[in-house]
Amino acid sequence: MNGRKEHNGGGSLHNIILVVLDGLGDRPCGELGGKTPLQAAFRPNLNSLMRNGQGGLLSPIAPGIRAGSDTSHLSLLGYDPQKFYTGRGPFEAMGLGMEVRGGDIAFRANFGTRDASGIITDRRAGRLSLGNDELARSLNMEIDGVRFMVKEGVEHRAALVMRGEGLSDKITDSDPHETGRAPHDVAPLSSEAEFTAKVLNKFLRVSRKVLDEHPVNVQRRKNGKPQGNELLLRGPGMVPKLTSFEEQHGMRAACVSAIPMISGIGGLLGMAVVKPEGATGTLESNFVSKLKEAARLSREYDFVLVNVKATDVAGHDGDALAKKNAIERIDEALGEMIRSLASETVLAVTGDHATPCSLKDHSGDPVPVVFSAPGILPDAAIFFDEFSAAAGMWRIRGLDVMNILKQMAGRSEKYGA
Amino acid sequence: MNGRKEHNGGGSLHNIILVVLDGLGDRPCGELGGKTPLQAAFRPNLNSLMRNGQGGLLSPIAPGIRAGSDTSHLSLLGYDPQKFYTGRGPFEAMGLGMEVRGGDIAFRANFGTRDASGIITDRRAGRLSLGNDELARSLNMEIDGVRFMVKEGVEHRAALVMRGEGLSDKITDSDPHETGRAPHDVAPLSSEAEFTAKVLNKFLRVSRKVLDEHPVNVQRRKNGKPQGNELLLRGPGMVPKLTSFEEQHGMRAACVSAIPMISGIGGLLGMAVVKPEGATGTLESNFVSKLKEAARLSREYDFVLVNVKATDVAGHDGDALAKKNAIERIDEALGEMIRSLASETVLAVTGDHATPCSLKDHSGDPVPVVFSAPGILPDAAIFFDEFSAAAGMWRIRGLDVMNILKQMAGRSEKYGA
């Protein structure tokens, strides 16, 4: 499975599973008597990992930085977001399930309403929802050798991806960012972007005609509803050209995720992307099937990333009890997974950021992390939660995780002699 | 008071107070039975903060680096000294209370003694003290559009600030750094500094004449004392052009300090600089008035920095008992401050470096830090001192402090989605 020479003085190479419980970290919750959902949860398997392994606190980017899932997963996989995170456009597009490639230009987009005089009267087209997929599809076209791909998101939201030679993301928004004004022509911010701006303005002119005549908008006009007849573009970014995970780390890798953005990052890194049956990215997701699939894949691949989204969903909902319950079900599924692993598998469990129920959003708090690997020295931490993890030996950043995992798996090159 | 949009999912924005106890950290002191002054001090308020908050150890720059107050305060305020610290000249000038601006060129200076043949016979002019202010004042002049400002320090010490268009700090010292030699003409180290060197050499020629004829020196000649008739320049640096604190962090800020250098940094960052009545920067300083003023300002400003110098003074004096007593009085004043704070204020207390009494100088030891904020999870640390803080969750650098404070105050931008 792995063609590279053995490291660590010829010791055996172990395979690795990295389980990321999305938005795992939390703060004291009133409903849980001042405990965090992790502290309140029955979590024998997570605690057993901590008792027998090494733990600590992880800042996904750096202490205090409020990470997004995109920047955090890049870090956890060993790709410095300060170098490779090119803005939200590309990751939003991936989040909508668009298959993007290094060099593509991606925008966040809204369907907005443009009146007869060309003025934007509603930047969200009345939050149109029905038919947004048809509107998006109608804008897929090719102009001057550049492919334009649009995909709808929730309500008026969408993303645009441009693919072709010689494109640049050094261009302005078409979104005027307020009503009562006409959409802007996009403008190049440097000479290398002149072609991009020109072809994109052509696309916008064509798209206005297509959208004005689209049956969905004809119907909305009839019903007196705001049309979705202007694609407002903002936040352009070039999809980063990333070294494949295999080239970067010397491991063939799989990504188990029900979340398009995480799957998108996996795809961009050349990982095998797997969405197991019943894995939905919701609180009702089938954690057992997801983690069992990870165990199965860990015999076939050197490295497996698993993202479990339910914890983040509960955090954004501010539902501490649901988060606690999700953790208990994940813990049970983790137990099943661990029992089916090859005995020498290296395993880490952590979060990509905290999503405290009290905030209903990401915070910059550190998250607990645990490493389990054959032969390592356990530390003093014996429970897996935000408080107890501080008794562990590690205070690390997301970018440290792959280095620690690889050395525990006997897969590190020596730095020096 | 704060015009920016609210972060953390619309949670409320809290105001922040950062209390820096200068030179706080210490090592075991014989006079205190082997305890540090912090360990020996009755400090119920600091301990209460630690018990209810999050703590740990802070390396102002990086582990083991012996920080100055200047580099440390830059770090603590979120400005990387590796990028912005341009040498001692500018900060010495600020330390003497000179108002400097980004782009000014500042030197450390000595009044030295030049004999009739032009040779430096004493680099410190017999540590002249009386009249050094008059000598300094006599050198304020304008040449070729460049303003020269000189201010005296302790004994023979002084600083020179040059202000004008097109100046550069890429020039050599005029100080020969040993007696028995003539002062150097300053020389440009790059072509951009040619004008600076030329106008500065002009200034030095004029200044020799002014100083030779100055009544203070005439009198010293009469009394057979070494004259202060040569301004010896070394350590040039351009005052850094720093993004204002408000632009950098999105907070209107005040700086409470009795120390010119700290006030100078605050001024350079556009903070409102306040020196409360009775605040002297000495062991006899009025801590209550200083910290009460900080509490008052925290209702008017989003962020308040307070520097308390007494701990550093006692450390430099090697007086462990005085340091312990200062800490006890500061703790009492902190208690009064805390009682008068808005309930949701975010508060951190730390040092800018250690000044162990056994060394009478700064060391590279880490210093304890504590964060208190609404809704955060307390950690295992329950006492505020160099030993006990290690039970806390944090191991951080100065540059992390603002990120942690802002996220606790609900004032962080998310990095990613």
How does this structure look, described?
The structure is a homodimer. Chain A has about 425 residues and is of the alpha/beta class. The first copy, chain A, has two domains: about 15-85 and about 240-410, Alkaline Phosphatase, subunit A; about 90-240, no CATH class. Chain A contains 14 helices and 15 strands. In chain A, strands 11-10-12-1-13-14-2-15 form an eight-stranded mixed β-sheet, sandwiched between helices. In chain A, strands 4, 5, 6, 7, 8 and 9 form a six-stranded antiparallel β-sheet that branches. In chain A, helix 11 packs parallel to helix 13 (about 320-340).
Primary descriptors:
homodimer; 417 residues; alpha/beta; Alkaline Phosphatase, subunit A; 2 domains; eight-stranded mixed β-sheet; 15 strands; globular
* Structural class label of chain A: alpha/beta
Number of domains of chain A: 2
Largest protein-protein interface? A-B, 38 and 31 residues
How much of the sequence lies in strands of chain A comes to: 15-25%
Rg of chain A, alpha carbons: 23 Å
In the predicted model, the low-confidence regions of chain A spanning at least 5 consecutive residues are 1-6
The biggest sheet of chain A, with number of strands, parallel, antiparallel or mixed sense and barrel status, is:
8 strands, mixed
CATH superfamily grouping of the largest domain in chain A: Alkaline Phosphatase, subunit A
Question: Averaged pLDDT of chain A, please?
Answer: 94
* CATH architecture title of the largest domain in chain A: 3-Layer(aba) Sandwich
Strands of the widest sheet of chain A, in order across it, are: 11-10-12-1-13-14-2-15
CATH class of the largest domain in chain A: Alpha Beta
- Tally of alpha and pi helices of chain A: 14
| CATH-defined topology of the largest domain in chain A | Alkaline Phosphatase, subunit A
